[in-house]
Hints:
It is a single chain. The chain is of the alpha+beta class. 31% of the residues lie in helices and 20% in strands. It has a five-stranded antiparallel β-sheet with strand order 1-2-3-4-5. The longest helix has 50 residues, at 8-57.
Amino acid sequence: MRKRGFTLVEVIIATLLVGGVCVASVRVVGAARMHQYRNDGAARGAQLAAAMMDEVLAQPYEDPDGDTALVGLEAGEVALLSRALLDDVGDYDGRVDQPPTNIDGDPIPGYGDGWSRTVEVEPVGPALSAVVFVDSGIYRVTVTVHRQGLTVARLVSYRARSADAVAAVGGGVQVKANVTGLDLK
Length: 185
């Protein structure tokens, strides 16, 4: 007569099967959380990039004081924590916010450790891809956002002095004063 119950072999096989299912489910949940983390970072990075780009493009193309420096701070301007004193697009070149701040220099809540954003302003030539060292009338503005050292968003826009500059430099290329492209990485 046979006793009722499980043999040791049956218990071992059942344990291995349950363990395998648990490991697979933990991996799936981990991958889903990582994907959510990256998507959240990309969306938040895009917001940071767009906010900075809006701020930069709201500035005049040329320095209102008539300084002719191409990009960067002009003589007498000081790069402090606050961006409130920046008065033209070129002043933002080389700007690094770590952690990201508002225009008055106050940190933006929720973007503390690990977040940073940079601004690069370059005069571009007729192809809009070659950097030139003369004032062509068009700047390429690039805002890059990093999270934990990784690029999560890059926003590129073009700022023109005037519609005439676009026509003269464009050489048949259709360019608007603020053409914007978002590259999420």
